[in-house]
C-alpha cells in the first residue's frame, strides 16, 4: 500500500508483478522519439513560503523571510516574457503556506485576498491580460483549492516525486505520497491537463521508482489527464550534498518511464539538470519549459540552456525540434479540457493570439530561437 493512500480514500495498488516486469527495462527496450518539443516560459515564484522542509530543496524560505510577488511585479515579468516571445507563465509556490507564515497571510489579507489560491487566480488573470497562458504548480491541493484556479490555467502540475516514504521528506510536516496522488486525482476529476514527475536520487530504491511510474500511469488510465511526466534528478545545492544519480541510473529510469507510461504521455527531462543529449535514445520527447527571461527559481544555480542549445540536442539526435504551448495539442480540441477563458486567449485577435496559434499549429514561434 502506498503510504498515505488510505488517508485520502485512494484505491490504488500497484501489482508486484508489474513492478518486477518494469524493472527489467533497459534503454535498449525503448525507441527514440521522432521529435522533441519544448515550451518557452517565464517563471514566477508567487511566494517562497512552504509548509514542507525537504532536505534537498532551496526554494523555500522560513517564516519571517518568505516573500510574495506583488501584482506589479507579476505584470512586469509577464510583459517582459510576452515581449520575448514566451507563451507560458509558470506560477509556483511552496505547498499551501501553513500557519507559521503569519506575515504572508497578513499581507494577503491586507491586499484583499482570502488565500494564496485566490491570489493565484488574480495572478493568472494578469498573465492572460499580458499575453501568456498560465501553468500553475502550487503543490498539494484540495478540490476546492484547485477549482478556484483551474479555469484560469491552460494546464497545472505537481511532482509526485516518489511513492516511497523517504527521509528527505521527513520532519513534522513530511510530504505524504497519498496526498500527492490525491492531487493528481483531483486534477483528473476536474478535467485539468496535468504535468507530474518523479524525483530521482532522494533515497528511493529501484522498486520505488517503478511503483511511482506505474502509479502515475494508473491515474492517467482513469482520467486521461496526464500530459507529461518529468524524470528529474536531484542535484547538489546549499541544502543537499547527497549527490546526483549517475548517467547509467538516469538512462535506465528514463527508459522505465517510457516503457511504463501510456504512449500519449510525454516523457520529459529538464535540460538544465539532466544530460538531455545522452537521454534522447531512452525515449524522451520533451525538453520542458525554458525561459529567455527568468531563472529557474527552484534550481537557481543551474541555468536554463539557450534555445540554440535545445536545437543542438535535436540536431544531434537527427530529429526536429518543435515548440509547444503549456497545454498539449491533444487537449486543445476538446471543450471538456480547456476553459472558455483559455480558449478565448488562444483565439484573441492580436499579436499574442497569433503567437499562440503559430506555436499550436506549426510548432514555430514568430520570435524564433535566436535568444536565450
Verbal overview:
With 372 residues, this protein is α/β, with parallel strands linked by helices. It has a single domain (5-362), classed as Aldolase class I (TIM Barrel). It is 36% helix and 14% strand. It contains twelve helices and nine strands. The protein has helices spanning 16-23, 71-83, 102-111, 116-130, 143-149, 177-190, 206-223, 247-260, 307-317, 329-332, 340-346, 351-362, and strands spanning 36-47, 88-93, 133-137, 155-157, 194-200, 226-233, 266-268, 286-290, 321-323. Strands 1, 2, 3, 4, 5, 6, 7, 8 and 9 form a nine-stranded parallel β-sheet that branches. The model has no long low-confidence stretch (mean pLDDT 93).
Offer a quick outline of the entry.
The chain is an alpha/beta fold.
SSE arrangement:
Layout lengths: L15 H8 L12 E12 L23 H13 L4 E6 L8 H10 L4 H15 L2 E5 L5 H7 L5 E3 L19 H14 L3 E7 L5 H18 L2 E8 L13 H14 L5 E3 L17 E5 L16 H11 L3 E3 L5 H4 L7 H7 L4 H12 L10
Parallel strand pairs: 1-2, 1-8, 1-9, 2-3, 3-4, 4-5, 5-6, 6-7
| Helical fraction | 25-40%
Helices and strands, in N-to-C order?
HEHEHHEHEHEHEHEEHEHHH
Classified in CATH, the superfamily is: Aldolase class I
* DSSP summary: helix tally: 12
The stretches of 5 or more residues where confidence is low (pLDDT under 50) are none
User: Main sheet?
Assistant: 9 strands, parallel
Look at the structure and give the mean pLDDT.
93
End-to-end CA span: 45 Å
What global shape is seen? Answer: globular
SS class: alpha/beta
Subunit structure: The FO synthase complex consists of two subunits, CofG and CofH.
Keywords: 4Fe-4S, Iron, Iron-sulfur, Lyase, Metal-binding, S-adenosyl-L-methionine
Pfam families: Radical_SAM
Catalytic activity: 5-amino-5-(4-hydroxybenzyl)-6-(D-ribitylimino)-5,6-dihydrouracil + S-adenosyl-L-methionine = 7,8-didemethyl-8-hydroxy-5-deazariboflavin + 5'-deoxyadenosine + L-methionine + NH4(+) + H(+)
Amino acid at each position: 500500500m502506498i503510504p498515505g493512500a488510505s488517508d485520502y480514500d485512494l484505491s490504488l495498488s500497484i501489482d508486484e508483478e508489474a513492478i518486477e516486469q518494469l524493472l527489467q527495462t533497459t534503454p535498449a527496450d525503448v525507441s527514440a522519439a521522432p521529435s522533441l518539443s519544448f515550451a518557452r516560459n517565464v517563471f514566477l515564484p508567487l511566494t517562497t513560503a512552504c509548509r514542507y522542509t525537504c532536505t534537498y530543496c532551496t526554494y523555500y524560505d522560513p517564516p519571517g523571510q518568505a516573500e510574495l510577488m506583488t501584482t506589479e511585479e507579476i505584470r512586469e515579468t509577464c510583459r517582459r516574457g510576452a515581449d520575448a516571445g514566451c507563451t507560458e507563465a509558470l506560477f509556483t509556490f511552496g505547498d499551501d503556506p501553513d500557519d507559521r507564515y503569519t506575515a504572508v497571510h497578513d499581507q494577503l489579507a491586507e491586499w484583499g485576498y482570502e488565500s494564496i489560491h485566490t491570489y493565484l487566480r488574480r495572478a493568472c488573470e494578469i498573465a492572460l491580460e499580458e499575453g501568456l497562458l498560465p501553468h500553475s504548480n502550487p503543490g498539494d491541493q484540495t478540490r476546492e483549492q484547485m477549482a478556484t484556479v483551474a479555469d484560469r490555467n491552460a494546464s497545472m502540475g505537481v511532482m509526485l516525486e516518489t511513492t516511497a516514504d523517504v527521509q528527505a521528506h521527513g520532519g513534522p510536516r513530511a510530504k505524504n505520497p497519498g496526498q500527492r496522488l490525491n492531487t493528481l486525482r483531483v486534477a483528473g476529476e476536474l478535467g485539468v491537463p496535468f504535468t507530474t514527475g518523479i524525483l530521482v536520487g532522494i533515497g528511493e530504491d529501484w522498486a520505488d521508482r517503478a511503483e511511482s511510474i506505474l502509479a502515475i500511469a494508473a491515474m492517467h488510465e482513469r482520467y486521461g489527464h496526464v500530459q507529461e511526466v518529468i524524470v528529474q534528478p536531484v542535484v547538489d545545492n546549499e541544502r543537499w550534498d547527497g549527490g546526483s544519480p549517475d548517467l547509467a541510473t538516469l538512462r535506465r529510469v528514463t527508459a522505465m518511464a517510457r516503457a511504463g507510461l501510456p504512449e500519449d504521455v510525454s516523457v520529459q527531462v529538464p535540460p538544465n539538470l539532466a544530460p538531455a543529449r545522452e537521454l534522447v535514445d531512452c525515449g524522451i520527447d520533451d525538453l520542458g519549459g525554458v525561459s529567455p527571461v527568468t531563472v529557474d527559481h527552484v534550481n537557481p544555480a543551474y541555468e536554463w540552456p539557450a534555445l540554440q542549445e535545445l536545437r543542438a540536442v535535436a540536431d544531434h539526435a537527427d530529429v526536429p525540434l518543435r515548440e509547444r504551448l503549456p497545454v498539449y495539442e491533444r487537449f486543445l480540441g476538446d471543450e471538456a479540457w480547456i476553459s472558455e477563458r483559455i480558449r478565448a486567449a488562444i483565439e484573441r485577435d492580436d499579436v499574442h493570439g497569433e503567437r499562440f496559434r503559430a506555436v499550436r499549429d506549426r510548432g514555430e514561434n514568430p520570435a524564433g530561437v535566436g535568444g536565450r
